[in-house]
Design goal:
By secondary structure, this protein is mainly beta. About 5% of the residues lie in helices and about 35% in strands. The strands form 5 sheets. A 6-stranded antiparallel β-sheet has the order 1-3-4-11-8-9, with no helix packed on it. The longest helix has 10 residues. The chain is elongated, with a radius of gyration of 23 Å. The N terminus is likely disordered.
Length: about 450
């Protein structure tokens, strides 16, 4: 098999909407063994259009190594053999597409996750085999697909159905896409605080004996729940809309999320707090999150407000968010520009076009005007044109907030028109956060 090696090659990839079954850490009967590193099937995600197999690789050598995936790689199930359609690496939930039959090399990183994409398989499939049908090719045989109701939630990677460029994924065909989801069919609100999921990060109250059988109701309720690790599949940006823990972000950032957590609240990036999806406007790619963590006690008055009237072409704007964290780190990033047009991609009147440059991970971050008012929410960008990005207009966010009866405090709001940019950034950045979804 090709010599294995880690790739930190970051590009954008095909934008895909996922409503799918996810099988975590499936049992694998046999795997390819290489002297260069160890591999493990971490997850199999299946929807109506495709099957994604996530495989981690840990290097065992300091040698300079490379990796390639052959176009002859197949997935076999129920007597059918399906050819691979694409592959890539995954870093911080962001899928970076790579070319089949092409070797990539890097000599510093020792662990990464890559993803193999195949056509969709039947929902009743019990196991699959993955094989690279070349000399000394890799294989993972007997991957058991154990489905349960707990795995039936939507699972995704920074995605949304689209007609213009996504901040979290890119279509390699060169056409423009929108991670904004403005063409979704449903505009109804959604509450993800389902009873069958515990957003605190702990498991449901189920107990089994050592043989795997479920115990009777007599099982003591004083048993401590088992904490389940939070596996980040995607990330974006968000910002506070009041001091009580309500945050705004893009719908595509949290679409299909099983759990959501927030980093940076009250300046703490090391201890994320749990949140739930409180409300959504799928048509306009907006979502409101609510921090539910027991340790959260509010953030105080906000220094900014959300503007209630539409802005004009030529107004100066700036954005603050968390793009490309895997290579840029967790420090907040500033970009600025002007409102280029009061309509978005293909004349979409729900969006502004901005000259400010945005990247993957900026989705959900606020757009401020010169007065320090929020005038929009970054949602997407035009492919291959850095100075053409899009933001959902303030009026649609106000409408969603009002529909939920959420109160917006104006106690600490101040005009920043005469203040330098450094002061504006220092004033508002404590209220802009990282969103991580599982």
């Amino acid at each position: 098999m090709k010599q294995w090696f880690i790739i930190v090659w970051l590009s954008f990839c095909a934008l895909v909407s996922f409503a799918q079954t996810s099988i975590e850490n499936p049992y694998v009967e046999s795997s390819y063994r290489s002297r260069y590193g160890d591999t493990k099937v971490e997850r199999v995600a299946i929807n109506s259009r495709e099957t994604r197999v996530y495989i981690s690789y840990s290097a065992k050598t300091n040698e300079d190594i490379s990796v390639a995936i052959s176009s002859k790689t197949t997935l076999k199930t129920d007597g059918r053999r399906l050819s691979i359609t694409k592959w890539g690496t995954v870093a911080d939930g962001q899928f970076s597409a790579l070319n089949l039959n092409q070797s990539y090399g890097l000599n510093s990183i020792k662990k990464f996750t890559f993803c193999l994409v195949f056509p969709s398989i039947p929902t009743n499939s019990q196991s699959i085999d993955i094989e690279e049908n070349v000399s000394d090719g890799f294989y993972w045989r007997g991957i058991r697909l154990r489905r349960s109701s707990a795995n039936s939630n939507d699972d995704r990677e920074d995605s949304g159905t689209s007609n213009h460029r996504s901040q979290t994924d890119r279509n390699d065909s060169g056409t423009a896409h929108n991670d904004g989801g403005t063409n979704h069919n449903s505009g109804t609100n959604r509450n993800n605080g389902d009873a069958d999921r515990n957003d605190s990060g702990t498991s449901r109250n189920e107990h089994h004996d050592k043989n795997g059988r479920e115990n009777s109701a007599a099982t003591p309720r004083t048993q401590r729940p088992v904490e389940t690790p939070f596996v980040v599949s995607a990330s974006g940006s968000s910002f506070a809309i009041n001091g009580e823990g309500y945050l705004a972000t893009c719908y595509h950032v949290i679409e299909g999320a099983r759990r959501v957590r927030i980093r940076g609240v009250n300046g703490d990036f090391d201890h994320p707090v749990m949140a739930v999806v409180y409300a959504t406007d799928r048509d306009n790619d907006l979502a409101i999150l609510k921090i539910t963590d027991n340790g959260f006690h509010g953030i105080g008055s906000l220094p900014y407000r959300i503007k209630t009237s539409e802005s004009e072409v030529g107004e100066e704007v700036f954005t603050l968010g968390y793009p490309l964290r895997s290579v840029m780190g967790d420090e907040i990033k500033l970009t600025n520009g002007v409102i280029s047009a009061c309509s978005g991609y293909q004349g979409d009147m729900a969006s502004y076009q901005l000259s400010a440059t945005v990247q993957s991970g900026n989705s959900g971050c606020p757009v401020f005007n010169a007065n320090g008012e929020v005038i929009g929410v970054v949602s997407s960008r035009l492919e291959n044109i850095e100075s053409a990005s899009y933001a959902i207009k303030e009026q649609y966010l106000i409408r969603l907030i009002q529909k939920q009866g959420i109160q917006l405090s104006s106690a600490g709001v101040r005009s920043m028109a005469t203040e330098p940019m450094t002061t504006k950034v220092r004033t508002v950045k404590p209220y802009i956060y990282i969103v991580e979804v599982e």
